[in-house]
Write a structure and sequence with these properties.
By secondary structure, this protein is mainly alpha-helical. It has helices at residues 3-12, 15-21, 44-107, 121-148, 168-179. The model is unreliable at 1-35 (pLDDT under 50).
Amino acid sequence: MDQAMLEGDARERAPEDEERTGQFDGATEAVQPQQETGYPAASADGNENELARAGTRIAELEGAVADRDAEISSLRQQTAGLETLLEEARGSLAETVSRYRDAVVRMNPEVPGELVTGDSIESVDSSLEQARSLVGKVREGLEKEVSRARVPAGAPERRTPDLFTLSPREKIRYGIESTR
């Protein structure tokens, strides 16, 4: 570009354009772009060096992103494997608790099996204790009821039958049996 075009270009710019693109230092000087540091840009060789460094940095960052993506993929696969193991462990735990519950019910025949429930060994043990307590209370209630209606032990007293209420045939039988 020739000097006249640069001067005309510089005169047409608004003050806000000067702030964005660089500093204007008089009518005869060209506009120079500023770097982020606030200093004028270096020569063309400096720009090429900066571009090369930026390209290298971009390549490093892209490599880091690729490494992170590979790590994320690996972690997702590990998570899927662990979730599978967790589901298998939950199934095994449920089966073990079910077998434990069945064993507890067999070992405690006085307790109804419907009262022993739970999805962990602790909850099965807790429900067993509650069932035993309930069975104990029911047993006590039944014993109290039976004790109220209890008949004294032993044979009834022997009395002679009232002969006036017997029929003639019963009187004869009574007489024969009493002589034996």
